[in-house]
Write a structure and sequence with these properties.
The complex is a heterotrimer of chains A (291), B (415) and C (222). Chain B is α+β, with helices and mostly antiparallel strands. Chain B has helices at 2-31, 71-77, 83-89, 103-109, 165-177, 327-335, 360-375, 380-393, 395-403, 405-413, and strands at 39-43, 48-52, 61-62, 68-69, 95-96, 99-100, 111-115, 145-148, 154-157, 162-163, 186-189, 201-204, 210-216, 219-224, 233-238, 246-252, 257-263, 266-271, 283-288, 292-298, 302-309, 315-322, 338-341, 353-356. Helix content of chain B is 29%, strand content 28%. Chains B and C meet through helix 1 of B and helix 1, helix 4, helix 5, helix 6 and helix 7 of C.
Amino acid sequence: MENIIVCENITHYYGSRLIYENLNFEVKKGKILGLLGKNGTGKTTIINILNGYLKPRSGECRIFREKMENLSPGTKASIGLLLEGHIQHTFFNVRQIEKFYRQFYPNWKAGAYYELLRKLQVSETQRISAMSCGQRSQVALGLLFAQDPDLLILDDFSMGLDPGYRRLFVQYLKEYASNGDKTIFLTSHIIQDMEMLIDDCIILDYGRILLHKPTDYILNKFKRYTFNSSATEIKATDKLWNPEKTGNTWELYSFSPKDEIQQILEPYNIANLKEEKLSLEDAFIGLTGKY
Amino acid sequence: MKSKKIIYIQILLFVTFIGMCAIPSLCKKITYSPDDYPFVYYSSILKELCYIDFHDKETPMRDGAGNLYTTAQYDSLMPLFNFRQLMVDGRLPDSIDGHEITPPILMSKSIIYRYSPAKFKTPDVGLYMMYESMPKRVGLELPDDVFRMKDKIEFIDNASNTINTQKSQTFQQALDKAGYSFPTQWVSGNMNPHKRYDEGYFCLDDSRQLFHVKMVNGRPFVRNTHIGDSITIEGFTVYEAADKRFYGFLFDKMGSAYIIESDEGKYKALKLDIPPINLENDEMMIMGNLLYWTVSVTSKKGKDIYALKSGTLECLQKIAIERTPGKWDNVSAWLFPAYLTFEHNNSDFIYPRLTVTGYKAFAVNLALALLFSLVISNPGKKRLFNFLFVLLTGITGLIALLILPDFSTKKIKSK
Amino acid sequence: MITSIFYKEWIKTRRILLLSLVVFAALITYIFINVEQMFRINGATQVWTETILKDISVLTRIQWLPLILSVLFGVSQFVPEMSNKRLKLTLHLPMPENKIMFSMLAFGLSGLLILYAITYMAILGGLNIYYPPEIVWSMVEASLPWFLAGLAGYLFVAWICIEPVWRHRVFNTLIAAYALTFFMISAKSGAYMPFIPYLLAIIIVAHFFSFYSMYRFKDGSQ
């Protein structure tokens, strides 16, 4: 399948602080990819690099085969961009902002915008600066749907939203993605609602990609194991993630099946090995650690 | 990006250009003091030019041989300059060299005139006031109209802001009759209503003839002075001298100075017996009395002082004082190969002028450029550019490079 | 699409534009009330004589106004773009970035030019009643640099606002403030005329500066 986003060997520093080294990933057409990571791992930085708002120290990104710093107007028209915090031009009111954007996009669907806003109980002359965070997010979302882009790039859409609005946002996104060949690239630091939305997961750690796998794969294969052992130290390996001891009980995570874990842990004299299925949020913690 | 680089160069040049006037003007404020020349005046008793130092309360005067004189001696050795003091002291002589001396005579013969290049380089609104030259009452009365005479003469009535056709026609006819050809090159006159009397205007017409235009008893008075026949006229300043001996000071193209005397209804140019001055840069000061004129000409090189006989304006004595370079001259020569100014001593107009100080500053520039490109490690091409730029522009270019963003980001990247 | 950009700029700046129009109108009215009073009390002869001899312009009260209002105007146009880096939204519009920037500046400059044109028409109309053309022209000549300062000030504000790094904003402000003093040198009426082409050149060059800030914004300079 066609790659919509390709990032190759991205290395970036802020001053002398390394953000990533040789970051590589791609997003295939029709997929919803979630870029997950703790605060400060550089999620927004990736979004900025992708859209050409930050020149990395080295490396290159391409969207629709165009280099990020020189996206053509046509390509920009087919990218919907949601900035962190649902930033929009707050000096407009609901009707003005629609009027403003309408002229830029050939497939503008004003109906989609007004339909979403009807649910919000805001008048068309209300200024965006006078809206709540949730209302603003719906304006931003409405504009994205009216634009009807082929690629949606959403930077931390869940930020500042109460659960209702978050759920609403996710529902709309799902519906949008199911309609056709739409690709979505999003970042979030709240994982709860991601499970039912994203097809693929990139989990960022400081300076690198920890994992890039389909969400199903993580949910099915990644397990939490608990057991009793008197061992004082169990080293983390690529098969044993984040081992941690509480009293006499050990806890660790792994993609390996129970038999294999049993075998690996043989030397530690373990007892009561239990396997648990995980939610995406638990898996995220298992992968990145609590701290 | 290519256009980013081009605009960077633009901003760099702009900031350097701004620096070329900001930094030198700041340095000038700190280091500049005006040239200090002694005051020189011709003594009608010693018959020589003498130096006067007004700060010296004991012996303010010194003659050419270096003899010092007390204040009392100074007063009596320069009676024509100090006649007010001598009068109060009761020491004013009755005559000098057979010329009668009374305060009214001295006052009527006293002349003070200062030429500076800005006198001719100043914007002119193009409207003038025609006084009645023979007023029925004492003192001049403000006319209730003004006139323009660029392409024709027109009087505009103040109260109605409309043209007084009849008066305009009368004057236009008088000008035509006298052979005046428009457009007028310039008009010189003294519009101060507090002057002693009025001699109207001297106008240079299109054929570079100088015309005397005034209003006498409400009628136009227009005469071709015919001075343009023999002299290529550059500028003229009307000077209504108290003794009505002359109309004003005239300069020809070469910079020679003249006065225009009235000679039984005719006009006669009498040349001051001094070398031509540089009208663009030199300043001239004339202090005249009954017997002698002291004329000083200040140029970039120094100050020349001439003593002229007041009747014939022939030169009796000349001394020259050389200029000693001040702190600012030295500082600017070493720090700035060139600097920009917008306001000038020799013009009222505002425009950029580049002053080139010479080669010395390039030594400092070279040192700066070397130091700069050794200390700050930039990639090759950039380093060469920085080196050449600082070599050419010196401190101002260096500061521009340092405060502009592109430079400092490059620095981090090269770490 | 340019009309849409203009629409956005208009929504941002319409209050300041209206305010500017009101302030100019109020000041011009005040100036002419003064002129009327001067002519009534002192008489035309006295007023004209003083104007010619002492080079007095009734427009000196306007001196700082074009600059102050254009700075406010520029701030009202570009600060909303920079708070929360909203310029990203603007630059994401499907239009070449240079064209977007150019449209924004074109809106500002044409807004100011229209405002100044209206102001000058009112001034010229009024002054022509009281003064002969030479005096009117000399007053206009003396006021030209102030209005050019308005245009330059606006472009400098754009340059400063869009610059992403605070330290450089401070440098840019100092540079701009010094450059603006070139427009405010006190001089005889008409003495500025040889300098006007250079001031225009500064305005043309300054017009490009904001593009440099925009490129830096795009590079993500911090």
